[in-house]
Write a structure and sequence with these properties.
oxidoreductase, 15 strands, Rossmann fold, alpha/beta, Dihydrodipicolinate Reductase, domain 2, single chain, NAD(P)-bd_dom_sf, 2 domains, oxidoreductase activity, Oxidoreductase, six-stranded parallel β-sheet, nucleotide binding
């Protein structure tokens, strides 16, 4: 393999056009050489973004032997199928979150990747922003005493819900699997612990059956608690707090610092002072370079398959809780 990973993209989804493909073009160790679309827009998008090849089917990308890896920004319900197809074509994979619609699906993807010796990473790009490493360091240093509670909110008002695939239940729609998956992921990442139970309530859209809002409460074996909110009905927020016995850490641009020019803030408050630290990065470029480096050097990426599996277990349990109106014990064994 060359020193640049050659990427193909399955679909002309807006996240690919507006964020991920331009980021791959900025990366030092990656390049996008092909894009595909079933809508006939591949050639138009390829020309606009300076991509060498345009295909009218996803299979053509997978059959292209010059392509090392694929990025999959398809609807959630198609992630499993095309990740497995890509694995059997020996393509490494970056797949949008959530990786699939169930933990069983994730295990099937994992087996396909192991059988074909390919790398895969679920695209929780927020992890690569340095603000989160700073939060973890502050916790480790005891800056807020003993951690007691984690609170996270990722919401926005979905205006085009009549035509947006996020409102299609059969495609894996709903606020929990969309923005709520970040809340769950960050809770587990920052606390470095798996929840043991969840009690969740949701506002369900009568027409589509998807959750417009979910509010969930988690408990941990250590005694820590967490409260998470996702919504398509609220003003935009993407923040979390870590509350301890002696202070609190707030991260106001936790999941989309790119909407603030790449700016991240970590605000530490104690009884005697408040301190704000700022961090900058090119989030999507860092994601592109990270997964490409992992591929080139045969190293496990920061967001592992085990992590993706565990995250899906929590999402499944949360859905079960608000569906059946009951507290659910979370099984964390793979």
């Amino acid at each position: 393999m060359t020193q640049k990973v050659r990427w193909g993209v399955l679909s002309t989804a807006s996240i690919a056009q507006n964020h991920v493909i331009p980021a791959f073009m900025r990366a030092e160790n990656a390049e996008v050489v092909a894009i595909s679309s079933l809508s006939g827009r591949a050639e138009e998008v390829a020309e606009a973004l300076g991509i060498e090849k345009a295909y009218d089917s996803y299979h053509e990308v997978l059959d292209d032997e010059t392509i090392d890896a694929v990025y999959i920004p398809l609807p959630n319900s198609l992630h499993k199928e095309w990740a497995i197809r890509a694995a059997y074509k020996k393509k490494h994979i970056l797949v949008e979150k959530p990786m699939a619609l169930s933990s069983t699906d994730v295990l099937e993807i994992k087996q396909a990747c192991l059988d074909n010796d390919v790398m895969i990473m679920e695209a929780f790009m927020y992890m690569l922003h340095p603000q989160h490493q700073r939060v973890k360091a502050l916790i480790e240093e005891g800056a807020i005493g003993e951690v007691k509670h984690f609170e996270s909110t990722f919401t926005f008002y979905l205006a085009d819900r009549d035509s947006n695939i996020r409102m299609e239940k059969e495609l894996g729609g709903g606020s929990l699997y969309d923005v709520g998956s970040y809340n769950v992921h960050a809770m587990r990442y920052i606390l470095n612990e798996e929840p043991i139970s969840v009690r969740s309530d949701a506002v369900i859209d009568e027409a589509s059956g998807v959750d417009l809002t979910s509010v969930s409460y988690y408990t941990f074996k250590s005694g820590v608690t967490a409260s998470l909110t996702s919504s398509f009905d609220h003003f935009h927020q993407n923040a979390y707090k870590v509350i301890g016995t002696e202070g609190m850490i707030t991260v106001p641009y936790a999941y989309r610092p790119d909407n603030h020019g790449g700016l991240g803030e970590v605000i530490l408050q104690t009884n005697t002072y408040t301190k704000t630290e700022t961090f900058m990065n090119d989030l999507y470029r860092d994601e592109a370079e990270h997964i490409s480096y992992a591929i080139l050097n045969n190293q496990e990426p920061i967001n592992t398959l085990t992590n993706s599996y565990q995250n899906m277990r929590v999402l499944e349990s949360t859905t079960a809780s608000f569906t059946h109106n009951e507290t659910v014990t979370i099984d964390n064994d793979e």
